[in-house]
Write a structure and sequence with these properties.
mainly alpha; 5 helices
């Protein structure tokens, strides 16, 4: 249901969803800033990288939904930055954390299913990096909770 047919995009989605789930879990457990801050920083940074990649593909393949996608990405980043700023100013209050959880998680699920999956019809299976290619999975060095570097695969 969430597959775009483009391996790089699908793997990035898996990684983002994994981190969103980690954020949900941290919020549910009332984790401290030492756990939430790195997750929030990752989501802010990696989301921008992912959006740039996805927008490039939509532009390359002249997807009809590319303008709606760009507009949605811009609005999401504005909302994420606002919520992150609020979190950093006020701390992990229940209201801020619930807003962050809802905004990030629900938006991604709706966006992936509503707009990103339209890449299937635009790029087709011939696209390098599609689900039919043999490209390696995306791995990314990120900081874990203990500030040690680990490689995270989107498997």
């Amino acid at each position: 249901r969430m597959a775009t047919g483009i391996a790089t995009v699908d793997e990035q989605h898996k990684l983002l969803i994994d981190r969103i789930n980690q954020l949900y879990d941290a919020i549910r457990r009332c984790a401290g800033a030492d756990e939430i801050n790195p997750l929030l920083a990752f989501l802010k940074d990696y989301t921008r990288e992912h959006f740039s990649h996805e927008e490039g593909l939509m532009d390359k393949h002249a997807c009809p939904s590319k303008h709606a996608n760009l507009k949605a990405h811009k609005k999401f980043l504005e909302n994420l930055d606002t919520l992150a700023d609020l979190y950093y100013r006020k701390g992990p209050t229940l209201g801020v954390l619930e807003s962050l959880k809802t905004t990030v998680g629900e938006w991604f699920a709706n966006h992936i299913c509503g707009i990103d999956t339209k890449l299937r019809g635009c790029a087709g299976s011939h696209e390098e990096g599609s689900c039919h290619s043999r490209q390696p999975l995306i791995s990314r060095a990120v900081k874990n909770r203990n500030a040690q570097t680990e490689v995270v695969s989107a498997n």
